[in-house]
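Notes from hallway chat w/ T.B., transcribed later so I don't forget. T.B. wanted the structure written out for a chain they're using in a teaching module, and asked if we could keep both sequence and structure tokens in one place. Agreed to drop them here.
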Amino acid sequence: MRLVRRVAQTAFVTADILQSRLQGPRILIYHQVGSGRSHEMNVTVDAFRSQLDWLGAHGEIVSLDDALQRRGEAAAESLYVLTFDDGYADIFANAFPLLEKRRIPFTLYLTSGPIEAPDDFPHWPGEPLTWDQTRPMLDSGLMTLGAHTHTHPDLRHVDVRTATEELELSNQLIEQRLGESPQHFTYPKGWWSETADTPVRGAYATATLGMGSSITPASDLHTLNRVSVVGSDAFGAFRRKMLTGGRTEARVRRLRQRYKGP
């Protein structure tokens, strides 16, 4: 299965040769690092280390806030932001030691349900973080804390009340457990939701999605696109994604989902 995925990824990035360069900062999406699982969300520790080396050699890895403040600079294409979705224990065990040693900033978009009550999420695709693991990452001064709902629903398929409750419960738990109110949000599965748009804008300074368009001074800070890094990305595919943003893959995924959002 991994071979099939790698062939598909190679086809996507080959087609991306025809795409123009992505403008502005690149906000990268990670999920798991060195979890030992074979699914696409997991990137090996060796691959992650090599990616950090490449990013550091070809640009600057900065915080989310820094990248957005500098998105109009001439060299903004060389700004990279690391973001981690959901909140898995392997981020603390495997990614954080590398980031801490190199003093690399990153953003964690935390889904509060699995960390608060892991037994309520038996099918969660990985071991969730604990609050005790999250605290030292926050105290390091490297981590920007973001929210990712409480139960990770596809917000396209819920009403305004449900979306609002998901945001409010997530924010309340994060503030109670960590003493910090998240100012940033990412939509589950990367799909923007019309019904969730208003409560998201009311609760957070920024919101991010899946892969798509460039980030420029004209970009809406509540519909920012990111670049997904997955387990089947060979090193050449990773480098190509950093240039063009994986937009062929994004278009195929949007067509399959019949997604017409930003």
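Follow-up for T.B.: The chain has one domain: 2-248. Might be a good example for the class.
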